[in-house]
Amino acid sequence: xxxxxxxSHEVLREEILADAVRQAERMVRKAEREAKALVAKVTxxxxxxxxxxxxxxxxxxxxxxxLTLATVPIEIGRSRATRVERELLALRDQVRERLLARQGxxxxxxxxxxxxxxxxxxxxxxxxxxLSANDLQQFGASLAGAVAARVGRxxxxxxxxxxPAKIAGGxxxxxxxGRQIWDNSLAARLDRLWPLLRNKIAEHxxxxxxxEPSGGPS
Length: 218
What we know:
4-stranded mixed beta sheet
């Protein structure tokens, strides 16, 4: 092989190597571009997913906030109604204690009125008045006559039972056969009137009167 052929082979080899290097560089650059594009895509998708999750979380938090705010007036109203009802029941207990202690009113006259009121709701001409043990000793002898005069029914016959009733005060009126019984004891009377009294007290005091009252008809 002469020197000319050797030089030609060397040039060709260098060109092949140079072309291989250029192709390798192009492949590396392409790979880098593709890698960057893939990374950017993944990053963008991750960011979108992050934003989506963040938006969903914010929306959930906002809904929860709205729901919580909506329940605040309800809870405040419920708490106030419970507190008002507790105060009114405490007042009822105080009234009951004063009634049983005969404080602030003429008890003998009250007994007459309670008996007369019961008689006005009953039919017949003969009735028995039942009193507590203490009231039986104090008013047993005079109550029947006083009640008969109060009701203005000349043909009515009233007697006071010798057996004390299991009440703390007031009167129970019944016919001799026990077919009609009207419990006008102090406790029963208060329980029947309490719903009306409760509403009037709450209105007078400016309290929330939306709580459902308890008790029977007056």
